[in-house]
Amino acid sequence: MIGRDELGHRSETVRRANLSAIVRELHSSGALTRSDLVTRTGLTRSAIRGLIGELVGGRLAIEGPATLDGTPGRPSPLVRPDPDRAVVLALEIAVDSLAAATVGLGGEVFDLVRVDLPRGRSSVVDIAAALAELAGTVRDRLASPDSIVGVGVAVVGVVRRDDGMVSMAPNLGWRDEPLGEHLSEALGLDVPITFANESDLAALAEHRRGVARGVDDIVLVWGSVGVGGGLIVDGEPLTGVAGYSGEVGHIPVNPDGLSCRCGSFGCWETEVGTSALLRRAGRPPEGGPEAWDAVLADAETGDPAALAAFAETGRWLGIGLAGIINILNPELVVLGGRLTASHPYIRSTLEAELDRRVLRASRRIVHVVTTSLGTDAPLLGAAELAFEPLLADPAAWLRPRHALAALASA
Ligand SMILES: [Zn+2]
Predict the structure, then answer these.
(1) Cα 175 to ligand 1 centroid, rounded to whole Å
(2) Which residues share a beta bridge with 222?
(3) Is-contact 330 312, C-beta < 8 A?
(4) 252 CA to middle of ligand 1, Å?
(5) DSSP 51-102
(6) Are the CB atoms for 114 and 90 separated by under 8 Å?
(7) How far does the centroid of ligand 1 lie from the alpha carbon of residue 268, in Å?
(8) Cα–Cα distances in Å, from 332 out to 178, 219, 367?
(9) 54, 11, 375, 39: which is closest to 210 by C-alpha?
(10) CA nearest neighbour of 276 among 247, 317, 246, 304
(11) Ligand 1 centroid vs 88 CA: distance in angstroms?
(12) pLDDT number for residue 339
């Protein structure tokens, strides 16, 4: 026998799940007619009408006048997310910069600021303070600063999702640093804060809003000093138990290779990262972005040494990627960071290596492309991460503000 309480509980669970399905559709597509929502969610017209009413009442959605959407029958009212009511703060600690953005429900970017990483001040306390200051700048420019519903933080390093404990960030010299603790304190906001590795977030952004939209099996490889990876499997980010997965840069590829920043040697990033290219082009490996740009400029003019350096990097990229493709059978490989500009010069050796090493059935399916969101992909992914609690249970945001605060601190 099912008791009345249990029935009530079940119908409440269904209501919350349906609200979530609608808000996810509105967030990813923008304006949709009620008929679109019926088609996409499989809910009845009357259910959609009731749930839209709740979302409009709670100011998560706006309903406009009816439009003829090209289908027979009555015109269907147009529903869009209300971007001003639910805004997230996206933050990023990148390899040589800090960034902050405010993004509304539906994906509209209100503001985006990027500054160079403060020189000589890279302690976790300094970085948290600088990032909070940047966050304050974009937040103060919002029409209503208390519309922030969540914070997402992209970190160039190995970071625990729930509390922002950074176990390793070699370019900052961090090991086991409680970034989350310092940043929460510096921000002083009473909303959920979630952390993730920047390549994981670049993959999420490309999946939701970029070149991999509609593709459910993706491998993103982000090349800079190190090499990061973001994996999406069956439409869901592959995070591992704590968020440490996707560290493709540390796949062992060369038993006789150079020592790696992680403490091992011969890792993929020692053959594919920016210093490997500089070394092959006959430049000091620690040359930095300017030296790397110079090698790219040489390749553009057809300089044989620069072209050979890129070709060899492409070969090593293909060797590692072949292993990843054989494990995951992705539809799309997305190259980001420095690999985007490298692509014309690494393409042929990379593809040749994939032809040689990837299982035929997988090889026929996979395509290698470059990012469409560019440098800001991790930051936009941080915004998507910050929206997740709201998208998962929008009903919680339809409650009065004081109940929300209790929820955030629970
Ligand atoms: Zn390593």
Answers:
(1) 14
(2) 228, 336
(3) no
(4) 8
(5) HHHHHHHTTSEEEEEEE--SSSSS-EEEEEE-TTTSEEEEEEE-SSEEEEEE
(6) no
(7) 7
(8) 35, 6, 5
(9) 375
(10) 317
(11) 33
(12) 97
Residue ranges in the chain modelled with pLDDT below 50: 401-402, 410
265: CA distance to ligand 1 center in Å? 6
Cα 350 to ligand 1 centroid, rounded to whole Å: 21
In the reported structure, the alpha carbon of residue 248 is separated from the centroid of ligand 1 by a whole-number distance in angstroms of: 9
Phi, psi dihedral angles at 162 (to 5 degrees): -80, -30
Complete DSSP assignment for 168-194: EETTTTEEEEEHHHHHHHHH--SS-EE
Residue 121: what pLDDT?
A: 77
In this prediction, residue 304 carries a pLDDT of 97
Q: What is the Å distance from ligand 1's center to 210 Cα?
A: 29
Residue 284 Cα, ligand 1 centroid: separation in angstroms?
20
28, 214 in Cβ contact below 8 A? Answer: no
Annotate 273-302 with DSSP letters as a single string: SHHHHHHHTTS-TT-HHHHHHHHHHHHHTT
Looking up tokens 């592959």, which residue turns up?
Answer: 238
What is the chain's length?
A: 410
What is the distance in A from the centroid of ligand 1 to the CA of 120?
Answer: 25
**Dist CA 131 CA 117 (whole Å):** 10
- pTM for this model (two decimals): 0.91
**Res 402: pLDDT:** 45
Residues 334 and 364: their CA atoms lie apart, in Å, by 16
- The residues placing their C-beta within 5 Å of ligand 1, an ion, are 250, 260, 262, 264, 267
**Span from the CA of 220 to the centroid of ligand 1 (angstroms):** 18
Q: What is the pLDDT of residues 71-114, one digit of tens each?
A: 556 677 899 998 888 999 999 999 889 999 999 999 999 999 99
* CA 270 to ligand 1 centroid distance, Å: 8
Radius of gyration of the chain from Cα atoms? Answer: 23
- In this structure, what token pair is assigned to residue 358? 């990837």
- Residue 77 phi/psi, 5-degree rounding, is -60, 145
